[in-house]
Every structure is written in structure tokens, then in C-alpha cells.
Amino acid sequence: MSDYYTIAVDVMGGDFGPRVTVPATLNALKRYPHLSAKLVGHQEAITPFLNKLTADIACRVEVIHAPDTIAMGAKPSQTLRNGQQSSMYKALELVSEHKAEACVSAGNTGALMVLGRYILRTLPGIDRPAIISSVPTVSGHCYMLDLGANVDCSAEHLLQFAIMGSVMTQAVDEIASPRVGLLNIGQEQVKGNEQVKLASRLIEEQGGLNYIGYIEGDDLYSGKADVVVCDGFVGNIALKSSEGLARLISKKFQSSFKKGIYRRILALLASPVLNELKKQMDPSRRNGASLLGLQGIVIKSHGSANKKCFGFALEQAVAEIEQNVPRQICREIEDKLA
Amino acid sequence: MSDYYTIAVDVMGGDFGPRVTVPATLNALKRYPHLSAKLVGHQEAITPFLNKLTADIACRVEVIHAPDTIAMGAKPSQTLRNGQQSSMYKALELVSEHKAEACVSAGNTGALMVLGRYILRTLPGIDRPAIISSVPTVSGHCYMLDLGANVDCSAEHLLQFAIMGSVMTQAVDEIASPRVGLLNIGQEQVKGNEQVKLASRLIEEQGGLNYIGYIEGDDLYSGKADVVVCDGFVGNIALKSSEGLARLISKKFQSSFKKGIYRRILALLASPVLNELKKQMDPSRRNGASLLGLQGIVIKSHGSANKKCFGFALEQAVAEIEQNVPRQICREIEDKLA
């Protein structure tokens, strides 16, 4: 791979569109001198944000006109028929045509999944792509997959997820032998549903991974595993339930500190500490979920991402390009499953 | 049902056995003058705790000798063969022989499930019992089922859970028409795995429930539903993941308030508020999960329950006896599924 690389940005995606995605991309271009960007979206919506570019940046930006935008609420299945003129479609196409090394979008997740799979195809040996994202732990973070791309998974799919997750963690976090855990409702061999029990046997037999066995929900955040594997239904519900409880704790906390003047003063005094804590736990700091298993790099940003937060998704894309994650997955799958 | 009722207590179950379970039961007898208790366990382990009883309490206590105890780590399937002399087995038998209206145990959950099903049988029309427990929400609490009894559920099972959960919430919380939600990864009809989509149709067609449709993981704690239905695999992982995140937040919080003397003083000043908050969120305050769908009332306490906490499980038993929850479920199932 050359030292120069290009990201195709679906600038229309997300709640804020070009207002967020274009300035975030320009910032990334400043940070990464070897990076070029193809801004895919409605030309008229993009150009107002391209004033006052320095020559150095301007020469690394290209606008690719796409008249349509896929709505956040659009049915993923319909985007195959109706989405061909959309910014998301065209951004993915740039990757399939080798005109960009990665696509970053804050758009409709389901559509990105469907279009990504259709346009880029899965890697040989991979049946289904999976969504992987980092999750905070006591000691830092771990990666969890799948987070919602696949609601009905077989044991073989879970094995593929385990291999892909391990490869990505190895590449991006530079951990030599990531500890891979399978999410289950107990740690004993007899526990769990049929797919999980079978998947555990497959991962063990496969032998090439640093498999630490089952881990329970409460160990998701304990730092026990570097990669946590589960089906997309369970993964989505585990993460969202946790978010829900965090929100409940925060609400109870706020109302506790509003009872009376003394408590209000305390809250005021404690606010720098609380803000620091909030920052540490902020999900936007781990923005940038990857769609692993495709013949190309696709990064999904939160729809509600602000400029800084969209920047994290771009950083994730750069890290995966630099490590050529798809090629590494391909090799491991050939090596381990052939 | 007579105004007088009896609970069979498996006093040997849990991490602390009779040391916790017997005093907790004696306290409950003081609170509920119509309650009698059969203390099931090893006689020699129980009698030391029965000194100095007032005549009023003494006449409502009976010790039922059971020489064996089911170990917390025992394989549930083996307890059917080897557990017949155990306190758990004998406590459940008292319910099946109509010598007690409910059984309360802090013992091995899997064993309680297997023995409960074998000794008490499921209610007509119910294929599988489910574990239900309350979960804190912004506005109070909701009930969630199943929490781990059934790892592979069909849509019909989820429908039965919905009916049972609705009945219990109606009876115990006196809510006329509990809002029932189905846990899923999105709110649109097309989202979710096959069982959940089919279950949603079944619950809708069934018509008799106040079904509010899908709810996502983050709405578990928002108070949107009074009853949340899911399979035991998902339910267990949702709750445990949330617990894990709460622990992570608490750890980060503590370490944030340990950096420097000023923050330590702040933490000290804030400690009454934090303790109040901790109390509000304390899972032991919602101790007492019910095994719904059996021909009898069975309440599972946390294994680590202390005296006060085991008392909540006894209270739950009293509430379900007073409302005769199994009979109500039976009626609803006949009414709705016949």
C-alpha cells in the first residue's frame, strides 16, 4: 500500500450532514498530511464549507456530487433499488473501485450494512459482516462484536466474528494475542443457548485464538477480555441496556444533588470532577464502529456525532487503512478456516 | 383462601444459610400476624436460632428436618436424583402437598428451577416457568422476564411470559392495565430476530394485553413499560451488563474523587448524598425474583442476601400469596389462550 491514502466521506449522513462532516474532514486532513478526502454529497451543500482552504488542504480535497441522501429512517432493503444516486452509495462505490481506501458515514446503519455488503461484497470465507466497536473497561477498553448487524447468528458466524475481532484488535491496538471471550449467561460449559455452546467448541477446536471461554454480562466492562463476541441481537441489547442504566444513574444523581441549597453548592464544587468523569465515559469518544468482513474499510459514525466526534470515526478509518485490516482478516481466515 | 397462610423456607440455601434465613423469617412473623413458617433444613443448624421466642411466634414456627443441602455449585440436573433429602426439595414438596402456600429459597437458581418444575409442575397452558424480577426505573420500577430460566424460547413462550408478567404486575402492583413491552433492537416492525417478530404478532393478535410494542435496551430503565418481556438469555445479559457498567461508573467515580486532598474532602462532604443514591439503586432492595408459571409460589432470593434483603423475598412471597398469583395466571391463560 502506498503511503498516501484516500477516505470517501458520505458527507450527507448523520443528523447534521455537511455542517459537521466537512469541517471534521478538513481537520483530519490537517492532522494527517498523507490523507486525501473525497467529499461525497450534494455539491451545493458542500461548497459553502470549502472557503478559505490553504493550498495544501485544497489539493487533497475532491467533491463528488451525489444528488440524493438516504434518510435516517429509510428501510435498508429499499436503498438497494432507490439509493444508487445517494451519497452513501457513491462513497461505497469509490471504495469498490479502489478510488478510496475507506468509507466513513454517519448515515442509516442498516442501509450502510445492506449497501456495503452489496457493493463491496464480503471477504472470502466470511458469510456476514459484523459491527464492532470499542467499549470502556476498568483498564481501558475492549472491542465488542456484533452490535446489531446480524440478529440470527449460527455458531460458525460467531467463530468468524471471533477471528475478525481478534485480527482487528491485534492490528489497531497492537495487542499481540488478544483475549477473546464469548458472551454467555454463565461460565460453566453447560450454560448458554445452543449456538453459543457450539460456537465455544468451534473456537476452541480452531485453536489459533487466545480464547478465554465464556464471559458474563457483568464482565463486559471489567477488562477481562480484549474482544467480546456475541450475536447482534444480544450485543445491541447489552450495550443499550447499559446506556439506559447509566442514564438512570445520572438522573438520580442530579436529582439527589438538587435537594436543598447545601447539596446544590456541593454539586457546584464537585462539577469539575463530574465533568471529567462524564468525559471519560462519553460514548462519543469511542465513536467509529467498523463494519468488519467486507472487501474494504467501512466506518460508521454515530448519527448525532459532532465535529470532534466525527473526527474519531475518521481516525478509526486511518488506523484501519494503515494496518490494512481487511487484508489481515483475509489472511487469518484463509489460515484458520481453510 | 384462608386468612392464615404458611411459607416453607429453605433455610439452608444462600451463602449464609440459617444465620440469615431464620432470623429474617422470625422478623417476618412479627410483621405478618397471619403468617406461619415451616423452617426446612438441618434441625441442629436451625434450633440454635430459635431461643427466646415469644409464645405468639413460637406457635407459628415449625422445623422440618432435611438432612441434605444442595450446594450452590451443584449441577441442576443431578439434583433430581440426589436432592430428595435436601431442604430445597422438601420445601417445594410442602407446597405441592398444600402444607405451605409458597416456598422461599436463596439456594442454587438452576436447581430451584429444575426441582420446582418437577415437584410443582407448570400451570395448565404454560410450557415453561420464567424468572421475573423488578428493575428500577426513572419513575419507580418495572418487571422483567425471563431472566435466565429459558435460554432458547419460541414466540409462544414469549407470549406466555407476557401474559404471566402482566398478571403478576396487575396483582402485586395493583396496576389495572400494565403496559407490556417486548425487548428488541429497534422499534420498527421489521427489526428483530424471528422469534421476537413472531411473538409481537402473537401478543398483538391475542388482544387482551396492553401491548405497547417493541422497546429497546435503553428504555428498560426509562419507565416506558411496566412489564418487559424477553428470552432468558437476553434478559440475563441485559441485566448483568447494566450491573457491570454501574460497577465501572462507581469505580471511575471513586478514583476521580481520590485525586488530591481537595477532592477527598469533597467526597467526604458528598458521602451522605452518595449513600442515599446507593441505597436507591441497591439491587438487594428489589430482592425476591419469582418463578412464574408453576402450580405454586416459588421465590428466589439472592444467594448473598443479608437478613433485611432475605426479608424482601419473604415479603414478595406474602404479596403473591395474598393475591393468589398462580390462580390468577391460570385464569388468564384459560381466558386468553383457550
Concise synopsis of the structure shown:
The structure is a homodimer. Chain A is of the alpha/beta class.
What does the model show?
2 copies of one chain form a homodimer. With 338 residues, chain A is an alpha/beta fold. Chain A has helices at residues 18-31, 43-46, 55-58, 76-82, 87-96, 109-120, 155-173, 194-206, 232-256, 261-281, 307-323, 325-337; strands at 5-10, 35-41, 61-65, 102-105, 130-137, 140-145, 179-183, 210-215, 227-229, 289-292, 297-300. Chain A contains 12 helices and 11 strands. Chain A has an 11-stranded mixed sheet, with helices on both faces. In chain A, α1 links the parallel β1 (5-10) and β2 (35-41). In chain A, α5 packs parallel to α6 (109-120). The model of chain A has no long low-confidence stretch (mean pLDDT 90). Chains A and B meet through α9 and α10 of A and α9 and α10 of B.
Features:
homodimer, 338 residues, Isopropylmalate Dehydrogenase, 2 domains, eleven-stranded mixed sheet, 12 helices, 11 strands, globular, phospholipid biosynthesis (chains A, B), cytoplasm (chains A, B), Phosphate acyltransferase (chains A, B), EC 2.3.1.274 (chains A, B), Phospholipid_synth_PlsX-like (chains A, B)
